Amino acid sequence: MTASGFDVTSASDVFFEEEHKMLRDQVRRFVEEEIKPHADQWEADGATPRELLRKMGALGFFGIRYPEAYGGSAMDERATVVLSEELGRSTYAGVAITALVHTDMASVHLFNAGNDAQKAKYMPGIVSGEIITAVGVTEPDAGSDVKGIRTTARREGDHYVLNGTKTFITNGVLADVYCIAAKTGGDGPASKAVTMFIIEKGMEGFTVSRALDKHGWRSSDTAELSFVDVRVPAENVLGEEGRGFYEIMKNFQNERLVLGAMAMGEAQAAIELTVAYVRDRKAFGAPLWEKQAIRQRLAMLSSRVEAARQMIYATAVRVARGEQLVREVSMIKALCGELVNEVMYACVQFHGGMGFMRESTIERMSRDARVQAIGGGATEVMLEEVAKRM
Amino acid sequence: MKILVPVKRVIDYNVKVRVKADGTGVDLANVKMSMNPFDEIAVEEAIRLREAGKAEEIIVVSVGPQQAQETLRTGLAMGADRGILVKTDATTEPLAVAKILKKVVEEEQPGLVILGKQAIDDDCNQTGQMLAALLGWSQGTFASKVDLGEGTVDVTREVDGGLQTVKLKLPAIVTTDLRLNEPRYASLPNIMKAKKKPIDEKSPEDYGVDVAPRLEVLKTVEPPARQAGVKVADVAELVAKLKNEAGVL
Ligand SMILES: Cc1cc2nc3c(=O)[nH]c(=O)nc-3n(C[C@H](O)[C@H](O)[C@H](O)COP(=O)(O)OP(=O)(O)OC[C@H]3O[C@@H](n4cnc5c(N)ncnc54)[C@H](O)[C@@H]3O)c2cc1C
Ligand SMILES: Cc1cc2nc3c(=O)[nH]c(=O)nc-3n(C[C@H](O)[C@H](O)[C@H](O)COP(=O)(O)OP(=O)(O)OC[C@H]3O[C@@H](n4cnc5c(N)ncnc54)[C@H](O)[C@@H]3O)c2cc1C
After folding, report:
1. Which of B14, B186, B195 shows the shortest C-beta gap to A26?
2. A3 has a pLDDT exceeding 90
3. Is residue A1's pLDDT more than 60?
4. pLDDT digits (tens, 9 = 90+) for A224-268
5. H/E element, B4
6. Is A247 considered catalytic here?
7. What range does the record give for the signal peptide (chain B) (predicted)?
8. To probe the interface with B, which of A6, A31, A65 has the most B CB atoms within 10 Å?
9. Residue from B95, B93, B84 nearest B132 by CA
10. Cα(A346)–Cα(A357) distance, rounded to whole angstroms?
């Protein structure tokens, strides 16, 4: 039972059409029936199973913005926001990120920069869920500072030879196809030296060196990847040589909107289950909900989450119309990454000792939320993007 | 053969319903609405019959406010072919709905009407039966199995004593029970396709039916909160309590 019933904004005609509401209903049902009953096991396993991803593919969740020719539904950013928010609401952010990295952070590189042959080869499988994708930009010595990557790709005839290490790569173990950033530009300006490559699992010299043990997102696999003299055919270059940095920056916009929406889905779910908990839990002769100190704090957090959601919705509508909104998207990522953590802190607090126990949902959610202020553009880096535009 | 499936827009089954402070009804503001779950089962059954080659066209019809169009659209996304919205803001009572459906049936000439056994908002459990009476058709209510033959349909019904199978002559009315099937998801490509499927808009006046409520709600109250139970030490104590306190033995 959702204590709050439903909320007006996510059904609002100001932002959404009938099909978005229907998509929301379908994802919500999928979360209830296919994710929640099983995901504790996936948390223990350290990965979300293929079987689930194929089911999501079959329902069209992986082809939201891709053309019908590839099995997609050619919808816009609003639909992506719906998917992200509802998966975030599942309370299993690890499952959510497994899907969302595939749809909105990795495969977008292939779709946006790929040529017709590359897209024909991979997109149908990406949409159906047969092919799972990962994106590798971050390295042990370069995270926020993308230009600092050290992986190199040296041209040799009709091949490139790739060497380097990637780390913190979501779906790193699970994926079939990887979009990997490497330096091709020698000593030229760093912004013109990065190129994206399609790397398939099984290419000689490419190995998953280890699966990483994480604080949260435990049902998402995260890996370190190693490239030793990997011979990559030149036809696997994504887009133009030397344009990789710009592609990465462009795709970050979508990624950050998605992460913001996912975080607000997490925050809503946390507030809802905490309201239910404190309505039920009695101390000093009455439900904790009767304490103004508690309910007013939850009411304020709920107000801030609502404000953030409406900003996400409005931004999605505008991005869908073709506006470039680096400032707003950076604001969203900074705001939501921090807000979701404030929400989790308060929600754990109001669960009392139970909030500290592994058996409570809120304990897992608070661990999952932490990375929202770090991954996909850390808060400080996002705030620099905002400050530059003030 | 055509199959007609009436669908109702109701409060979502997940929502914890709250009574309005003034007792005039339940609070519908900002509450999530969905297709009545028994109607989803009806739509699913119709689609399965079409997939089995036993029906050609599925028409979903809803009597309700403009937003009931979303409910119809859900039926279309699941696989129905077209929709009819009979628009009214009045509280819909079973008899009025059954009268409208009778007119729709006369226009569309379906071989089978599949309805939910009841709607989870008012739990009336009347519309299907009333429609059967108005049309003079056979009815198989609370179906847990529907087996469509040549000119007949075998309906397995969930009754108090177990299961009962009735053979009905077509055209007929079937109402669905929970265990008939598990409704499918509407895939995203099908949601997009549903946008292009036609929905006819009608009004009760088009069918000459007066939908004004015949019933007046005097008061709505929360059900009494359940009292906490008591633990008994053994069977002897239980029997003693049943005898002396409850007075049922
Ligand atoms: C679970 C998880 C999954 C991930 N998945 C992927 C993936 O699939 N693919 C991928 O490529 N990467 C992935 N990442 C990497 C992620 O994008 C980086 O962790 C993130 O960009 C931060 O980089 P970093 O870890 O190197 O931190 P650093 O860049 O070393 O930053 C450390 C701290 O310094 C701050 N800082 C950095 N620069 C500045 C500045 N200019 N001003 C002020 N403060 C600054 C940061 O905000 C941060 O707080 C993942 C990370 C995690 C944790
Ligand atoms: C790891 C761990 C070890 C522990 N070890 C022990 C131990 O060894 N022995 C032992 O006896 N106990 C132990 N405890 C229990 C601990 O003391 C309680 O968890 C703590 O007192 C809070 O009580 P609670 O969990 O019942 O939360 P609740 O009392 O249910 O409180 C929930 C929330 O409501 C707030 N709240 C409560 N009353 C009010 C009010 N009047 N106004 C506003 N807000 C209010 C609280 O601050 C809290 O945020 C332990 C707990 C943990 C987590």
Report:
1. B186
2. no
3. no
4. 999 999 999 999 999 999 999 999 999 999 999 999 999 999 999
5. strand B2-6
6. no
7. none
8. A6
9. B95
10. 15
CATH code for position B145: 3.40.50.620
What is the CA(A346)–ligand 2 centre distance, in A?
14
> Quick count: other Cβ atoms within 10 Å of Cβ B20?
12
Q: Is the dihedral of CA A171, A172, A173, A176 positive or negative?
A: positive
* Overall domain count for chain B: 1
What ipTM is given for this predicted complex?
Answer: 0.89
Task: Give the up-direction half-sphere exposure of residue A266: CA atoms within 13 A in the CB hemisphere.
Answer: 37
Nearest chain B residue to A5 by CA distance is: B15
Structural domain containing residue B220: 2-245
Model pLDDT, residue A7: 65
Distances (CA, A) of B123 to A40, A269, A357, B116: 36, 30, 41, 11
- Count CB atoms within 10 A of the CB of residue A390: 5
CA A218 to chain centroid: 14
Among A69, A58, A85, A5, residue whose Cα is nearest residue A261 = A85
- Kindly list the residues from chain B whose CB atom is less than 8 angstroms away from the CB atom of residue A68: 189
Q: Sheet containing B57-64: give its strands across.
A: B162-169, B152-159, B138-148, B172-176, B112-116, B2-6, B57-64, B82-87, B199-202
The Cα of B241 is separated from the nearest Cα of chain A by a number of Å equal to 30
What is residue A138's DSSP assignment? -
Best interface-test mutation with A: which of B27, B32, B36, B199 has the largest number of A CBs within 10 A?
B32
Ligand 2 pocket test, pick from A275, A278, A288 with the greatest ligand atom count within 8 Å of Cβ, gives A288
- DSSP per-residue letters across A266-303: HHHHHHHHHHHHHHH-EETTEEGGG-HHHHHHHHHHHH
Task: Give tens-digit pLDDT for B56-74.
Answer: 999 999 999 999 999 999 9
**What contacts A19, CB < 8 A, 6 or more positions away?**
A75, A79, B191, B192, B194, B195
